[in-house]
Amino acid sequence: MGLTYFKRFRMEIDLAQHLLRAGPLPLGYRLVPWHAATIEAHAEAKYHSFRHELDANVFPCLGDPEGCYRLMLEISRKEGFLPGATWLLEYRPQARSARPTSHPPPGPSEPEMPVASGMPARGCATNGQPAVEYCGTIQGICDRSGVGAIQNFGVTPEHRGRGLGTQLMAASLAGFARSGIRRVYLEVTAQNEAAIRLYTRLGFVKVRTIYKAVELGALSLFG
Description:
The protein is of the alpha+beta class and 223 residues long. The chain has one domain (3-218): 3-Layer(aba) Sandwich (Aminopeptidase). The protein is 24% helix and 26% strand. The protein is built from five helices and seven strands. The chain has helices spanning 39-50, 55-58, 65-76, 164-178, 193-202; strands at 3-14, 29-33, 87-91, 133-142, 148-155, 183-189, 205-215. The chain has a seven-stranded mixed β-sheet with strand order 2-3-4-5-6-1-7. It is globular.
Protein backbone atom coordinates (compact mmCIF):
# COMPACT_ATOMS: atom_id res chain seq x y z
CA MET A 1 0.00 0.00 0.00
CA GLY A 2 1.31 3.48 -0.89
CA LEU A 3 2.22 6.23 1.50
CA THR A 4 1.61 9.95 1.54
CA TYR A 5 3.47 12.45 3.70
CA PHE A 6 2.10 15.36 5.71
CA LYS A 7 4.39 18.27 6.48
CA ARG A 8 4.27 19.29 10.13
CA PHE A 9 5.98 21.88 12.28
CA ARG A 10 7.31 21.48 15.79
CA MET A 11 6.66 24.71 17.64
CA GLU A 12 8.06 25.58 21.08
CA ILE A 13 7.42 28.16 23.76
CA ASP A 14 9.76 29.33 26.50
CA LEU A 15 7.66 29.68 29.65
CA ALA A 16 10.28 31.94 31.24
CA GLN A 17 9.39 34.52 28.58
CA HIS A 18 5.77 33.69 27.77
CA LEU A 19 3.26 32.63 30.40
CA LEU A 20 -0.25 33.38 29.21
CA ARG A 21 -2.71 35.39 31.23
CA ALA A 22 -6.32 34.74 30.28
CA GLY A 23 -9.38 36.68 31.37
CA PRO A 24 -12.64 35.20 32.66
CA LEU A 25 -14.43 32.55 30.65
CA PRO A 26 -17.68 33.44 28.86
CA LEU A 27 -20.88 32.68 30.76
CA GLY A 28 -21.71 28.98 30.91
CA TYR A 29 -18.16 27.69 30.38
CA ARG A 30 -15.96 26.01 32.96
CA LEU A 31 -12.43 24.59 32.93
CA VAL A 32 -12.28 21.19 34.61
CA PRO A 33 -8.97 19.82 35.95
CA TRP A 34 -7.91 16.28 35.14
CA HIS A 35 -9.47 13.37 36.96
CA ALA A 36 -9.62 9.75 35.80
CA ALA A 37 -13.42 10.01 35.81
CA THR A 38 -13.23 12.61 33.00
CA ILE A 39 -11.43 10.38 30.51
CA GLU A 40 -14.58 9.70 28.46
CA ALA A 41 -15.43 13.41 28.45
CA HIS A 42 -11.96 14.19 27.08
CA ALA A 43 -12.45 11.52 24.41
CA GLU A 44 -15.79 13.06 23.43
CA ALA A 45 -14.31 16.56 23.16
CA LYS A 46 -11.36 15.19 21.20
CA TYR A 47 -13.58 13.36 18.71
CA HIS A 48 -15.90 16.30 18.04
CA SER A 49 -12.91 18.67 17.77
CA PHE A 50 -11.01 16.63 15.18
CA ARG A 51 -13.38 14.34 13.28
CA HIS A 52 -13.83 16.75 10.32
CA GLU A 53 -10.31 18.21 10.48
CA LEU A 54 -7.18 17.42 8.49
CA ASP A 55 -5.56 15.89 11.57
CA ALA A 56 -8.06 13.01 11.41
CA ASN A 57 -6.28 12.07 8.17
CA VAL A 58 -2.84 12.43 9.69
CA PHE A 59 -3.94 10.47 12.79
CA PRO A 60 -6.98 8.34 11.83
CA CYS A 61 -7.82 7.50 15.45
CA LEU A 62 -8.97 11.12 15.86
CA GLY A 63 -11.83 10.50 13.45
CA ASP A 64 -13.20 7.56 15.43
CA PRO A 65 -14.96 7.74 18.85
CA GLU A 66 -13.41 4.54 20.15
CA GLY A 67 -10.04 5.58 18.73
CA CYS A 68 -10.21 8.81 20.74
CA TYR A 69 -11.09 6.87 23.88
CA ARG A 70 -8.17 4.47 23.43
CA LEU A 71 -5.86 7.41 22.72
CA MET A 72 -6.91 9.11 25.96
CA LEU A 73 -6.25 5.90 27.87
CA GLU A 74 -2.79 5.65 26.31
CA ILE A 75 -1.92 9.29 27.09
CA SER A 76 -3.18 9.07 30.69
CA ARG A 77 -1.02 5.98 31.29
CA LYS A 78 2.21 7.44 29.95
CA GLU A 79 5.01 7.70 32.49
CA GLY A 80 5.33 11.44 31.92
CA PHE A 81 1.60 12.27 31.95
CA LEU A 82 0.96 15.63 33.65
CA PRO A 83 -2.51 15.92 35.22
CA GLY A 84 -1.87 19.60 36.01
CA ALA A 85 -1.39 20.39 32.30
CA THR A 86 -4.48 18.43 31.24
CA TRP A 87 -7.78 20.30 31.12
CA LEU A 88 -11.32 19.83 29.89
CA LEU A 89 -13.65 22.61 28.78
CA GLU A 90 -17.35 22.14 29.43
CA TYR A 91 -20.42 24.20 28.68
CA ARG A 92 -24.00 24.39 29.93
CA PRO A 93 -26.55 26.71 28.30
CA GLN A 94 -27.78 29.28 30.79
CA ALA A 95 -31.49 29.61 31.58
CA ARG A 96 -32.80 33.00 30.51
CA SER A 97 -33.80 33.82 34.08
CA ALA A 98 -30.43 32.87 35.52
CA ARG A 99 -28.24 35.69 36.82
CA PRO A 100 -24.58 35.72 35.74
CA THR A 101 -22.17 34.55 38.42
CA SER A 102 -18.41 34.68 38.74
CA HIS A 103 -18.37 30.87 38.81
CA PRO A 104 -20.73 29.68 36.07
CA PRO A 105 -22.13 26.17 36.50
CA PRO A 106 -20.55 23.35 34.53
CA GLY A 107 -22.10 22.49 31.35
CA PRO A 108 -23.25 21.10 27.86
CA SER A 109 -25.39 21.55 24.88
CA GLU A 110 -26.23 20.14 21.50
CA PRO A 111 -27.64 16.64 20.86
CA GLU A 112 -25.56 14.25 18.88
CA MET A 113 -24.25 10.70 19.02
CA PRO A 114 -22.85 8.78 22.00
CA VAL A 115 -19.06 8.75 22.20
CA ALA A 116 -16.73 6.11 23.61
CA SER A 117 -17.80 3.27 25.87
CA GLY A 118 -21.18 3.93 27.40
CA MET A 119 -21.07 7.71 27.08
CA PRO A 120 -24.37 9.63 27.03
CA ALA A 121 -25.31 11.56 23.91
CA ARG A 122 -24.09 15.16 23.83
CA GLY A 123 -26.58 17.63 25.22
CA CYS A 124 -29.03 15.11 26.66
CA ALA A 125 -30.61 16.16 29.95
CA THR A 126 -30.24 13.96 33.03
CA ASN A 127 -32.49 14.17 36.09
CA GLY A 128 -34.15 17.25 34.61
CA GLN A 129 -30.83 19.14 34.45
CA PRO A 130 -29.15 20.29 31.22
CA ALA A 131 -26.37 17.88 30.30
CA VAL A 132 -22.77 19.02 30.08
CA GLU A 133 -21.36 19.54 26.60
CA TYR A 134 -17.65 18.80 26.46
CA CYS A 135 -16.29 21.29 23.98
CA GLY A 136 -12.53 21.48 24.47
CA THR A 137 -9.59 19.39 25.61
CA ILE A 138 -5.83 19.64 26.04
CA GLN A 139 -3.39 17.12 27.51
CA GLY A 140 0.19 17.50 28.68
CA ILE A 141 3.10 15.12 29.15
CA CYS A 142 6.77 15.51 30.04
CA ASP A 143 9.18 13.70 27.74
CA ARG A 144 12.35 11.97 28.86
CA SER A 145 14.43 15.10 28.26
CA GLY A 146 12.27 17.11 30.69
CA VAL A 147 10.53 19.12 27.97
CA GLY A 148 6.75 19.46 28.02
CA ALA A 149 4.63 18.20 25.12
CA ILE A 150 1.07 19.27 24.36
CA GLN A 151 -1.16 16.50 23.05
CA ASN A 152 -4.37 16.88 21.02
CA PHE A 153 -5.37 20.45 21.79
CA GLY A 154 -8.81 21.12 20.34
CA VAL A 155 -12.07 23.07 20.63
CA THR A 156 -15.26 21.83 18.95
CA PRO A 157 -16.34 23.81 15.87
CA GLU A 158 -19.50 25.27 17.45
CA HIS A 159 -17.46 26.92 20.21
CA ARG A 160 -14.56 28.39 18.25
CA GLY A 161 -13.94 32.11 17.87
CA ARG A 162 -14.66 32.92 21.54
CA GLY A 163 -11.13 32.86 22.94
CA LEU A 164 -11.66 29.43 24.50
CA GLY A 165 -8.54 27.94 22.92
CA THR A 166 -6.44 30.63 24.59
CA GLN A 167 -8.09 29.79 27.93
CA LEU A 168 -7.32 26.09 27.54
CA MET A 169 -3.74 26.76 26.49
CA ALA A 170 -3.17 29.19 29.38
CA ALA A 171 -4.42 26.62 31.90
CA SER A 172 -2.21 23.91 30.42
CA LEU A 173 0.95 26.05 30.27
CA ALA A 174 0.40 27.13 33.87
CA GLY A 175 0.28 23.44 34.79
CA PHE A 176 3.57 22.80 33.00
CA ALA A 177 5.12 25.76 34.82
CA ARG A 178 3.93 24.47 38.21
CA SER A 179 5.67 21.18 37.42
CA GLY A 180 8.97 23.04 36.92
CA ILE A 181 8.94 22.71 33.12
CA ARG A 182 10.29 25.71 31.23
CA ARG A 183 10.02 24.61 27.58
CA VAL A 184 6.89 23.19 25.97
CA TYR A 185 6.33 22.06 22.39
CA LEU A 186 3.53 20.91 20.16
CA GLU A 187 3.26 19.70 16.58
CA VAL A 188 0.92 21.13 13.95
CA THR A 189 0.20 20.18 10.35
CA ALA A 190 1.60 22.83 8.00
CA GLN A 191 -1.73 23.20 6.19
CA ASN A 192 -3.48 24.19 9.41
CA GLU A 193 -2.75 27.88 8.98
CA ALA A 194 -5.33 29.07 11.53
CA ALA A 195 -3.74 26.95 14.28
CA ILE A 196 -0.26 28.16 13.34
CA ARG A 197 -1.40 31.78 13.57
CA LEU A 198 -2.90 31.12 17.01
CA TYR A 199 0.23 29.40 18.33
CA THR A 200 2.45 32.17 16.97
CA ARG A 201 0.27 34.80 18.65
CA LEU A 202 0.53 32.91 21.94
CA GLY A 203 4.33 32.87 21.80
CA PHE A 204 5.22 29.58 20.08
CA VAL A 205 7.95 29.59 17.43
CA LYS A 206 8.74 27.05 14.71
CA VAL A 207 11.87 25.08 15.50
CA ARG A 208 11.70 22.07 13.20
CA THR A 209 9.94 20.63 10.14
CA ILE A 210 8.97 16.96 10.21
CA TYR A 211 7.04 14.65 7.88
CA LYS A 212 4.38 12.19 9.00
CA ALA A 213 3.87 9.14 6.77
CA VAL A 214 0.29 7.90 6.39
CA GLU A 215 -0.95 4.91 4.42
CA LEU A 216 -3.19 5.98 1.55
CA GLY A 217 -5.84 3.48 2.61
CA ALA A 218 -6.16 5.23 5.99
CA LEU A 219 -7.12 8.59 4.47
CA SER A 220 -10.68 9.85 4.51
CA LEU A 221 -12.00 12.83 2.60
CA PHE A 222 -14.12 15.32 4.52
CA GLY A 223 -16.67 17.49 2.80
